[in-house]
Amino acid sequence: MQKALELSDRLSDREKYLIQGAFYLKSEKTYDKALEALKKLIKLYPDNISGNNYLGILYSRLGEGDKAIEYYGAAIKNGTEDVVIFTNQAGVYLDLGLCDEAIEVCENYINNIGDSAHIRRYLALLYSYQGNYERALLEVDKAFSLIGDLWLNIRRKGDVYLFMGDWEKAEQEYSKLLDKEEIIAQGFNSMRMQSLDLLQGKFRDYKEKSKESVERLKSLGQPTWAMSMRSGLAYIERRLGNSEGALKELKKVWTIAIAEENSVFQKYKRFTLRNMGLVYLELNSMSEAQKTADRLKEMTEQAPNKKHIKDYYYLMGMIELKKRNYLKACEFIKKGLPLLTADSELNLVYTSSLGLAFYRAGNLEKAAEEYERLTTLNVGRFDYGDIYMKSFYMLGRIYEDISWNGKAIENYEKFLDLWKDADSGLTELKDAKERLAALKSQ
Asked: How far is the C-alpha of 88 from the C-alpha of 72, rounded, in Å?
């Protein structure tokens, strides 16, 4: 792409601006140049499908969903049959919480262009987010009928079972990924098996799988996978109470992330700084946590997508929570929540933390409201399934505090059933058992 950019002046305006737009899309620091080139292209050639698609991608990254939908729509209107452009547009609708509109885009492709396994898989994901698992499985089966047991079909079927809570069937599907030659299929086997461990409270198994994955990835030269796996390892070290180990892993992620300037690496820089700040809080190093928050604020303010400031708001909320300034904690977290896309895994994290802040502030009604909302979220169960499960434990605590013993017992029992195979010795597990026994003995 660098060579193409260097030689682009030899080409027509159409190809020159398209190459410039594609090249400058690689890094957040050059989004302004990408926008300039692509706007020139569309002014000259408004029906250019690739140019409209790239503008859709760019505005999506800038957090301007309405404009992204507009440009993807222009590409579709001008006759594209590229299935990815359709799911790109559907993805923006999903970001905005408009799942029905996303489904409509996918059905538009099937009705007007033809059937597609790619579309069927995406529909399966959308129906899973809506909790319509029967329809989701039907869409996956249609994908299998079109192209057989492609690894993407297998992964999606496992995903539907994961959302359903049928972890045995999910594991059966994910295990099939190991039989595939594609490295990415084997990578997703590791990631999804770890997701199942988180959901079931099997933190030690998760850690072992993470370490194995990190070792396997060392020889593959895949930095984004390495960042993902080490971030997961840092997360589980925190869950096991090893904050020093978590910080060590996050510093390795940071070293990888600063080596490149593309948008994926920029995302990991922000993600890693936020998590480092959380670890410093666990280590009771308030000064380091605040320094990290200040660095994160500076980084997010420089980002072209101003909604990234949500990461700073969240970390500041957790700093205030640590200081026992509960109302300030709520204010910060509430500022960040609306800036998340509707399908962001972090919805679980933010909602749980807001519920905790309300709980510690003594606002039990608001705390219950947030944790009840959390139990309805399907997004987030891949990366933060443990938070989803512990919401039932927290609801038990809240309802016990307000003497709604029937609801407390119901939530404790659900939590203990879901974590019946969890690691022994987990604090929440022991506490839930003791509280449930005391409530039942009354």
From this structure: 7
Residue pair 124/134 in contact (Cβ under 8 Å)? The answer is no
Amino acid at site 424: S
**98 CB contacts (<8 Å, ≥6 apart)?**
none
pTM of the model: 0.94
Q: What are the CA-CA distances from residue 156 to residues 84, 173, 253, 431, 432 (Å)?
A: 17, 9, 28, 36, 34
CA–CA dist 14, 213 (Å, integer):
44
Q: Tokens 């749980």 label which residue?
A: 352
Q: How far is CA 33 from CA 38, 45, 165, 298, in A?
A: 9, 18, 46, 22
For residue 236, give the 3-state DSSP assignment: helix
User: Which residues touch 388 (CB under 8 Å, ≥6 apart)?
Assistant: 199, 348, 374, 375, 377, 380, 381
Closest CA to 214 of 271, 265, 252, 264: 252
Relative orientation angle of helices 65-77 and 83-95, to the nearest 10 degrees: 160
pLDDT, one tens digit per residue, over 272-284 is 999 999 999 999 9
